[in-house]
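re: ur question from yesterday

yeah so i grabbed the chain u mentioned. its 213 aa long if i counted rite. heres the sequnce exactly as i have it in my notes:
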Amino acid sequence: MSLMVYEIFRSVQGESSFAGFPCAFVRLAGCNLNCRYCDSRPARSGGQEMSVSEVLTQVAAYGIELVEITGGEPLIQEETPTLAAALRDSGHRVLVETNGSLDISRLGEDIIRIMDLKCPSSGETDRIMWENIWKLRPLDEVKFVISDRHDYEWAKGIIMERFAHTKTKILLSTVFGELPPRRLVEWMLEDRLKARFQLQIHKYIWPPGTPGV
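ran it thru and got these structure tokens back, copy pasting raw so excuse formatting
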């Protein structure tokens, strides 16, 4: 059983409620979307074929509990749930970051799903699998990447309509270099929006586009 892996590396978690913690990343190759502001475009193709055991061995060498499977879009590979379960069974806390266009229920117990809901400026809003919202659990997280006021108003409407009575963590961040973070924070404070603001902190530690971080 094998997967197409673009890269495996260690860094700090740059986003989510786990931001700042040391994390091992397994970036899988391939994606079914083409977001306008994609920051992992090289991973859309290529990659190296690796078995699940080979991935586990490389991750184990880092000695880090937290692991994120990302992409590309990890759920386009049928073996991703198996990899996630194997990492969990090896003692890791496992995050899977997904673009929200594919069925998240394929991921098993205790796997934390971080699901992106694609805002209008991404160009991929029509690919959202809305049924996934009802499959979210309190340990899962949903993120909105905001480029402008239109994105924000769209996200605010979704949060108020779909997440008003949920314990799922809601995260808002900006498209790096397009919307000043202060502007988004001001909008959230004005609206008393029940969501968490986040920065992509790895882009402040290393120059944007730096590979392997």
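noticed a couple things. The first helix runs from residue 52 to 60. also The chain has one domain: 2-205.
anyway ttyl
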